[in-house]
Amino acid sequence: MKNLFLKSLLPAVFALPVMAALPEGHPAPDFQAQASLAGKAFNYTLEDALKKGPVVVYFYPSAYTGGCNLQAHSFAVNHEKFAAAGASIVGVSLDSIERLNDFSADPNYCASKFPVASDADGKISGHYDIAVKAAAPGKTDSRGVEINHGFAERTTFVITPNGKIAATLGGLKPEENVAKALEIVEKLAADRPKAN
What we know:
7-stranded mixed β-sheet; Thioredoxin_domain; peroxidase; Thioredoxin-like_sf; two-stranded antiparallel sheet; oxidoreductase; 7 helices; 35% helix
């Protein structure tokens, strides 16, 4: 009877959202990574991006998987709205740079609108307190290619130019995540003092 109770309890425990990510107001850890934009790899640094305005750093499980495809497409479709609010976007996953070169240029997903960074060793995820789980053996992506890296928990950070986290968004569906991030950067833009 006890074993039956434990077996029924375990799925419920693992279904709970894990919100251990860095909170609002916390300094955002700087990072440098190989990233891809429009299929071309380059060195991305958060510090450089913040010099131009707020940055939306979104962690996602894997390129070419259902929710991640939807989220990347939603960020691409709304890219001009983020830019109008003075914000840039960067996606971060444990995908290799080779996978990200394809994903960043794919017209159905990132559509060459924003970079995606490779956190292949999981260090960036670790600095942001993002939970990472191992891929199930034999797991394949939406193209049928085997996924051989860990999955970062879907979490988005809106980071202000002074390097502080303005918002931490977790536990949302992919499109809701993008809509909420856009709402926050538009509010930051509205609250910015106007130049005379």
